[in-house]
Amino acid sequence: MRSRPPSAGAPLRRVFVLTVLLLAGPACHTSHAPEEPSSAGSPEPTPTAATSPKPTPSPVAIPGTTPEPTPVPGFAPAPSPTPTPTPTATPTPTATPTPTPAPVSLTITITGMNGSSSFSPNPAQVKVGQAVLWRNADSIAHTATEDGNAFDTGPIDPGGLSAPITLSSAGQVFYHCTLHPTMRGTLVVSE
């Protein structure tokens, strides 16, 4: 075989070929570019392939198992915050209607035989359903009788108190003492 005379671009071409071989990795090391003789006539050493790192095998998942995380020294995971409970609204009890209390009873004083001033207060203001009583402050017996006889206390002794009477409708009610008819009184009844 006849050798070719060396050219000026031969060293540059060798550097290029070597660079490509080194960068290409182990797959390209199986074939080499033909060697060209050096200008000194001595053969050039063949570049050796760089040792490539061995790949690290990937972990294989085993069905039915859950891998545990590997703890990192000096690292502790932060605890999850504890949720703050939300207060539950307390139901407000429903108010039950309070029955309207019966009005306080009214006591009328019998002062004596003084015409329209024989009963105090006169006229007396009362409500429907309110109890009315008469107290005798005179020295003799008296009554409180409705002019149409709708109610009659009967004789009330001196210092005594009548039984209560209750009126069921609004309006004016006139009464007197049956023992002394000049003694007159009036009840003004309202709702």
Summary tags:
four-stranded mixed sheet, 1 helix, single chain, mainly beta, 8% helix, 191 residues
Secondary structure topology:
Elements: H1 10-24, E1 106-110, E2 119-120, E3 124-127, E4 131-136, E5 145-146, E6 165-166, E7 171-176, E8 184-190
Parallel strand pairs: 1-4, 3-8
Antiparallel strand pairs: 1-2, 4-6, 5-7, 7-8
Provide structural commentary.
The chain starts with 9 loop residues before the first helix and ends with a strand. With 191 residues, it is mainly beta. The longest helix has 15 residues, at 10-24. The chain is built from 1 helix and 8 strands. The model has no long low-confidence stretch (mean pLDDT 78). The protein is 8% helix and 18% strand.
Strand residues, percent: 15-25%
Show unreliable segments.
none
Shape: rod-shaped
Order of strands, main sheet, comes to 2-1-4-6
Average pLDDT number: 78
Please provide the count of β strands: 8
SSE run = HEEEEEEEE
What value does the Rg take, in angstroms? 63 Å
Q: N- to C-terminal separation?
A: 144 Å
Number of helices: 1
Q: How much helicity do the residues have? A: under 10%
Largest sheet: 4 strands, mixed
- SS-derived structural category: mainly beta
